[in-house]
Fold this sequence. Notes:
With 355 residues, this protein is mostly helical. It has 15 helices and no strands. The chain has helices at residues 36-39, 41-64, 72-94, 107-127, 133-140, 143-154, 161-178, 181-184, 199-226, 232-253, 264-290, 293-296, 302-315, 321-339, 346-354. It is globular, with a radius of gyration of 20 Å. 46% of the residues are buried.
Amino acid sequence: MSRPKSPLIHGDDIENYGSMQTCQDDGAIANESLSFTARNAGMLLIIYSQFFFASMDISVKLLNGLEPPVHTLQIIVIRMGITFVCCEIYMTVMGIPDPIIGPKGVRMMLFFRSITGFFGLSGMYWSLQYLSVADATVLVFLTPLTTAVAGSVFLKESYSVKQAVAGVFSLLGVVLIGRPAFLFGSLDAIPQGLPDTAPAQRLAGVGACMVSVLGNTGAYTSIRAIGKRAHPMHVMTFFSLWSTIISSLGMVVFDIPVVYPTSWMWVLLLFIVGVFGFAAQTLLTMGLQRETVSRGVTGMYAQVFFAVVLERLLFGVVPSLLSVLGAVIIMSSALYVVMKKQKPHQDSTADNTQK
């Protein structure tokens, strides 16, 4: 039985900026003879993006260890400022129309993606003031599950039981790696040096994580809704521009001093954060434009796996047996979703035939 089309993801009056002409909407396979890479282009792009996200987080961790420390809002300003400049240069060179305001018909959706994306980004940082990294990570990684549900409800995308099971197993893997104290009851799961927090403050931290989850859910769902009606750089431009504006205003309102570079390592790490952030957001946007939300978000759990590997290589952190088990579960779930062939959506084929 075919599912009704969502009005959010269709707009015949808008130019198609997509480059993959062999795939139907919603990630349906138009040609069963396509190669493995072509069939799973969206999912693979999402997994690649998680490597850059993890690398960026490692760079931020190294940056926070330098003196003087850089405030989170300043990092966002620099990272998103670099992303905005890169997007504008690319679109100008390639002659992409409407490089700043985006194409007509999706501008409101682009704005919605930008605002929700900022809250998704800032909510995570805010939560770390009151929660351990493990606690915050587990809570924020509810995003793939909520995004898959949102895609099914608002975009009318299919969400199979097998995909749901893969998502739950992936979340289990995150729990095993993070080992939050509120689940495992061990003080070893809380990083040393984390200040004691009152119940009200901890509740505020959990609330911030929920803000991050809702923000990311709105951002990822809107990217899929926009689809190929806007170029990936349009999506990136809106997000980076508004994140830069809001973060800059936040620094002014809260009187946060600007920290200037004091060493070449300081400059290098900030540059890496900006470049890796640009690469990660570009790959993620391209992946979500080509893949259903329910299937694509499963690949986001790969970030935890990449983070464990990079920490081992750069910081010598030896993961525990539970962390290794969690990483194996995460990658196995993502691999299962990638390897499982999708059936063409009959309703998409019918719609295309009628046009």
